[in-house]
Amino acid sequence: MADPTQEIFRGLEGVLVATTKISKVDGLGGVLTYRGYDIHELAAESTFEETAWLLAEGELPTPSQYAAMTRTLAAHLAMPDTVLEVLRQLPRTAHPMAIMRTAISAYGCTDTSAEEITVEAWKRVATRLVAQIGTIGAAAWRLSQGAEPIAPDPSLGYAANFLYMLHGKRPTEAAARILDIALICHADHGIPASTFSGMVVGSSLTDLYSAITAAIGSLKGPLHGGANERVLVDLDRIGSAANVPAYMREVQSKKLKVMGLGHRVYKTWDPRAIIFKKIAETRAAKDPDIARTFATAVALEKACLDAYAEKQLYPNVDYYSGIVYRSLGIDAKMFTPIFAISRMAGWTARLIEYLPNNRIFRPRGKYEGYDLRAYTPLAKRRI
Amino acid sequence: MADPTQEIFRGLEGVLVATTKISKVDGLGGVLTYRGYDIHELAAESTFEETAWLLAEGELPTPSQYAAMTRTLAAHLAMPDTVLEVLRQLPRTAHPMAIMRTAISAYGCTDTSAEEITVEAWKRVATRLVAQIGTIGAAAWRLSQGAEPIAPDPSLGYAANFLYMLHGKRPTEAAARILDIALICHADHGIPASTFSGMVVGSSLTDLYSAITAAIGSLKGPLHGGANERVLVDLDRIGSAANVPAYMREVQSKKLKVMGLGHRVYKTWDPRAIIFKKIAETRAAKDPDIARTFATAVALEKACLDAYAEKQLYPNVDYYSGIVYRSLGIDAKMFTPIFAISRMAGWTARLIEYLPNNRIFRPRGKYEGYDLRAYTPLAKRRI
């Protein structure tokens, strides 16, 4: 490997920037663990609240810790008036992630102890951020639809309360559990651009809100969040499983990219895709529209695996998650915000992990510009 | 140099992440150039408006380009109602940088073409951001003082208009020119954490406002912006040049850090410090309070160079700039915001420079956590 002080490490691909005990991705084995626990087990048995605690604290909570933590989360669900008023000022046409970015930044302005930069203080802020981001996300959606935000119901679980604030009616237990699993699955995954954005910002020992505001702004980008939204656009355009062969001919002749298939790290099934596919299948059994989209996705998955065997184009987390969200009545515009709501747990856990051995990120650019040249006064320049 | 895929590059110290033609820092020679022009020449002959153009476009503007650019800047000075209303909602107690972070994020929400990710679109946005950040900074300050924001006067130059919006009266030509030079001096300096924060966020091809919001949040941190504010606190505490010897004994016995002296890159005078020292001297000649602080600074500078000869503790940009700002009647709380206002030129120029060969930043963490372990249901955990 070349010397990174001489050669440019574009995108820092493969470069180690920190040690971590939070999550581990085994791309060849298709295994994702949070703090040593397999994502399949967590999806089957845990809750998002517990997973957020696990990521932050390193161990599963005891029953009393669990009870205390859910009480704290519930206590911070309601939005401060300042944040709600800021949300009301923002144009409805704005990108929902831009609105969340602004609202979280405004939320930071309301915290009079925001400048306390310690692990203990950041853990307190992290819990509040996990609580708030769902409320902010749901309110942003409702305001964009010309509807009034709905106050949280702290008696509900986190996922159920989010669906309640989003749709204005209490979700079924099944729907709430499905969103709960989705939140578990998206809570952490190495150091992608959003997490790294937060780490770089936080490394100047600025407040946690600044770092999270950056992470939201990064996740917003099309190279990062938002792939599941584009998967659905493609599946809708294809229309049915019967149209997949024709679509594949188009893909092959025009060398189109099929969204949601293939992954930089996973060279087999993304374990989260397995979880989402299973859920999508159960939802398809109850709804003919979802069934048609699901059948299209299955056919396209098979066609791509057959056509590009050497490329290992297995489904990633984005491939079936959009179908699942749609089956819960969630608009595609909210897919990336839900990713942000879930990832808040991982972002904050990683920022807190980096803090005790913090080192400010200060890389270099390789100068390839002009040598020293003399200034010409404005009047003497060519017109 | 070690292999960055095996060994952790803490803080990415010395690691090259991009090529650049924007600014060059020669730490041994004490030379800073923007696009090949020496900072001394720019400080003597250029304006902030011209410097911002130079950083973005690579060449000094022709007379007609200069005229067009100042017209465009002037046209975007006024704050949209949305941004002003958001500012009014935020608590006066909030950190001015947190307020600017929120206001710029809100400003992004008002741009219906924010998602246009091209060099041309970003150049348009960059000009607006340079125009707005001064207006936002001045308004944030006035609101924090319980005063009404003052609408910009587009007939004034950028620096003069900022002082006008800040203090509510037109500055002298000398004062405006001093701030103009200060803005030129802070406009770019390699890839510090704030600039890198913006680049990492921008690398997901999100909007420019998201990237700049991140940069502001990063600059806010005490390891980055804000050193000149702390220099003044120290100088005020020392009180006079006569007290410097006693203070030096304290510094040496308690191994205190003297703020504003020494620099990671410059092993001689920071060229910007030379510029600020000269200005501070002229200001000291007119004001006995400034004269006392300046004399204290000069004595402390000399004492530290004598006491720590081997450490090369030459003044950096922060050492005399606080004295200069104070001589303009600017409160210390506004020092970092003014840094942000100036650096907006560099941040946007570097983000635009990175865009055509964009590569998303996705480093790795070295996993040192638990191996796979089995999940224990909540009821079976120790209480």
Describe this structure as you would to a colleague.
The structure is a homodimer of 383-residue chains. Chain A folds into two domains: 20-223 and 332-357, Citrate Synthase, domain 1 (Orthogonal Bundle); 227-327, Orthogonal Bundle (Cytochrome p450-Terp, domain 2). In chain A, helix 5 (96-109) packs antiparallel against helix 10 (208-219) and helix 9 (193-202) packs antiparallel against helix 10 (208-219). The first copy, chain A, has helices at residues 39-45, 48-57, 63-75, 81-89, 96-109, 119-144, 158-167, 173-185, 193-202, 208-219, 227-238, 244-254, 271-284, 288-307, 317-327, 335-354; strands spanning 16-20, 23-26, 31-34, 37-38, 364-367. In chain A, strands 2-3-4 form a three-stranded antiparallel sheet. Chain A contains 16 helices and five strands. Chains A and B meet through strand 1, strand 4, helix 1, helix 3 and helix 4 of A and strand 1, strand 4, helix 1, helix 3 and helix 4 of B.
Basic shape of chain A: globular
> Can you identify the CATH superfamily of the largest domain in chain A?
Citrate Synthase, domain 1
**Biggest β-sheet: strands ordered side by side in the sheet of chain A:** 2-3-4
Assembly annotation: homodimer
User: Architecture of the largest domain in chain A, according to CATH?
Assistant: Orthogonal Bundle
For the termini of chain A, the CA-CA separation is: 50 Å
Helix content of chain A: 55-70%
